[in-house]
């Protein structure tokens, strides 16, 4: 492999790492410095290393660093899904309570249907909470 191809490959790895790094933590209303610092804490990295990757100034990215970036993204996705799940479970509980207030006996079929749907999604433990 020529020197130029090798250099290009390293730049691609650093660019990919920088893109992954930016996906770990939503920016919200933080300055870039705060955003880098928050992301560094989430990864357990030094601020200087995180900043170097952020600005694509790092010379190389280790495999363990790429693994850490991907794991942090998976963890963020899991937190988002868990939050969405809790919101849906709370919404179902509110709907069940509202139907029961109107006429529990009349709406028992709808309530049972909601519970069956919840169970089909694989959450047998929480289905009893409905």
Q: What is the count of β-strands?
A: 0
- Largest sheet: number of strands, sense, barrel closure: none
Order of helices and strands: HHHHHH
- The parts where pLDDT drops under 50 for at least 5 residues are 124-130
| Shape field | elongated
- The end-to-end span amounts to 61 Å
Summed over residues and divided by their number, the pLDDT gives a mean of 82
Number of helices: 6
- Return Rg in Å: 23 Å
The structural domain count equals: 2
Helix vs. strand class: mainly alpha
- What oligomerization state is this entry in? single chain
Helical content (DSSP H or I, runs of 4+): over 70%
Proportion of residues in extended strands: under 5%
Summarize the structure.
By secondary structure, the chain is mainly alpha-helical. Helices cover 77% and strands 0% of the residues.
What does this protein structure show overall?
It is a single chain. The protein has two domains: 1-61, no CATH class; 78-130. The longest helix is centred in the middle third of the chain and has 41 residues, at 63-103. 77% of the residues lie in helices and 0% in strands. The chain is mainly α and 130 residues long. It has helices spanning 3-24, 32-43, 47-54, 63-103, 108-120, 124-127.
Task: Name its key features.
disordered C terminus, elongated, 0% strand, 2 domains, 130 residues, single chain, mainly alpha
Q: How is the topology of this model organized?
A:
Blueprint (H helix, E strand, L loop, with lengths): L2 H22 L7 H12 L3 H8 L8 H41 L4 H13 L3 H4 L3
